[in-house]
Write a structure and sequence with these properties.
Strands 5-2-3-6-7 form a five-stranded mixed sheet, with helices on both faces. A hairpin with a 5-residue loop joins β2 and β3. The protein is α+β, with helices and mostly antiparallel strands. It is built from nine helices and seven strands; from the N terminus they run ααααββββαβαβαβαα.
Amino acid sequence: MKHQETPPNTLAQMGNPTTLNSTIAEPDGRAEPPIEVLGEHISEVLHLLGEDPERVGLLRTPERVARSLAFLTQGYNIDAKAILESAIFEEEYSEMILVRDIDVFSLCEHHMLPFVGKAHVAYIAQSHLVGLSKIPRVVDAFARRLQVQERLTVQIRDVIDEVLQPLGTAVVIEATHLCMAMRGVQKQNAITATSAMSGIFLSRGTARAEFMRLVNTK
């Protein structure tokens, strides 16, 4: 099991980051959710909320919501490892590779409300590189599920470590959670930052500092 630590001052300024250990989640091979059946349940929810699912404005709402949920949870059927394995190549390069400001859209598993933000993903290769577009695709594969930000951060790190076997991987996610902004504590400006690091990003402060400097350069 890998261990991780919270980077110094620069990350701390982004909002009390959290780090956790986790295992890589594999697709469960389930069939696509049945839109018609899901829509029937959503129609019943509308009824329980005191609405009339038969009124003109809501006639197609159950189907729309069903298709929306199917899209937002499609990550259960996406193999993040296969995404990386499909585009590995060898190159004599052993410096940091950073894909910054990757859009993140996910659903909080506690309230099924969105959390949105940015992911910053870096790795230092030993011999294997991966096509740059695959990093955002991996982020989406894990984000398009019912999630918590802490788990999402670690899953991205773990799959890069497993497939590419780099000298180190670093992931930071900054996000706004609508379950905090729209309800509950109702803090619209609160940003949650999480980090997960491995290898050289833990053992060498200069690598971690360079990563944070690049992340914070706007």
